[in-house]
Amino acid sequence: MIIVMSDSHGESKVIQDIKATYQDEASAIIHCGDSELDATDPIWEGINVVRGNCDFDTLFPESLVISADQAQVFVTHGHLYGVNFGLSHLTDAAQKAGCKLALFGHLHTPIATVEHDILCLNPGSVAQPRGQYKTKMYAKIDITADAYVISYMDLAHQPIVNLQFRLARSSQ
Questions:
Q1: Which of 58, 62, 117, 119 is deepest in the core (most CB within 10 A)?
Q2: Tell me, which fold does domain 2-168 have in CATH?
Q3: Could you tell me the end-to-end alpha-carbon distance of the chain, in angstroms, rounded to an integer?
């Protein structure tokens, strides 16, 4: 299981709560940027984190490639890949990095789609949701042999109705 959160904008307690809930069972806990915290904050122990457009600490990486649940995962905030205008630059970067998952923040809204055999996922925002869903949320990804099982969760760690997906994986 991979846990993905983003756009916490100074809300360190929610990061700590999600970390405490999943640290013993998740293969990776990921924060897709805009934490507005320092890169040296002890909260990041055990969390893979990238720099967002509201993060001014240059010690955060702009992107990461990690291995989780036997998959290569590209992690970025998204603003440098023009996610406001589509996912093609993001999927290109993930493909070049040899990844089948591209996780990003920036938009503050849940997105789960497979584009060019790459799972593109935005976990929404744990602090400032935008768009159709006004719920503060994060995402849980389970990878099976043939699918990505995605569950968007509220801050009480309960599944959000209408935000539960099973997306087919390519056979490669």
A1: 119
A2: Purple Acid Phosphatase; chain A, domain 2 (3.60.21)
A3: 20
